[in-house]
Design goal:
Layout (H helix, E strand, L loop, with lengths): L56 E6 L5 E4 L6 E4 L5 E5 H9 L3 H4 L3 E3 L2 H6 L1 H8 L7 H4 L4 H9 L3 H17 L5 H11 L14
Antiparallel strand pairs: 1-4, 1-5, 2-3
Helix pairs in contact: 6-8
Length: 204
């Protein structure tokens, strides 16, 4: 149930972090001198910064199960996201107001912005996204050990927790999530009884 990303910045994988490899005590290699006349300068072009108008429409996406409603701070418009993964446009002025006020709808989050230019303009939002769990990380979550799952949930945006719960139920029903220890850990965390959906009784 991975949510499609469109024109977003690259996010860190918050569930599985690869260790950086450091190579020490390597011998310096001899580098041949390049004649000045052989060096060809490379032309670089700086990407132009997009300027938004107050009524420009910015594409956003729901990352919550079920309907999500967003009330525009400036326009008063009610924006409706029908389901997980639904995409809707929100006026620039409304989205800026939500970001500046650090509204939960943006920073829990319940929706994510899909416009790269908007994200780059809003430095607080960009920083948040660069350190946030992404929909692509969800599958990695279900591979964690039980104690790691709990730790990840404690640090996860609220909007993602409901998505994880819904995905767990779906995976159990589909027979692709069959670890008793992991299911029990989720039941303890959410106060649910997902174990009743499975016939598993032994430890995996």
């Amino acid at each position: 149930m991975a949510v499609k990303k469109t024109n977003t910045t690259t996010h860190k994988n918050a569930f599985v972090k690869e260790a950086e490899s450091v190579v020490e005590n390597t011998k310096p290699e001899t580098v041949e001198t390049v004649k000045a006349e052989e060096v060809v300068p490379i032309e670089t072009s700086k990407k132009s910064v997009k300027k938004f108008n107050p009524d420009d429409m910015i594409l956003c996406q729901s990352i919550c199960v079920g309907q999500t409603f967003v009330k525009g701070f400036k326009s008063g418009t009610i924006y409706t996201f029908e389901a997980l993964g639904a995409e809707e446009y929100i006026e620039y002025r409304d989205l800026v107001a939500a970001v500046r006020s650090k509204d939960n709808i943006i920073f829990k989050p319940f929706i994510i912005v899909l416009d790269e230019d908007f994200i780059n303009e809003q430095k607080t939002l960009k920083s948040f996204y660069e350190n946030m769990y992404t929909p692509e990380d969800f599958e990695e979550f279900f591979k964690l050990r039980p104690n790691q799952m709990v730790e990840a949930l404690n640090n996860m945006p609220i909007g993602f927790r409901e998505t994880i719960k819904s995905m767990a139920v779906g995976k159990i029903q589909d027979g692709v999530f069959d670890s008793v220890a992991r299911i029990k850990a989720l039941d303890d965390y959410f106060g649910t009884k997902m174990m009743l959906l499975t016939e598993l009784y032994g430890e995996n």
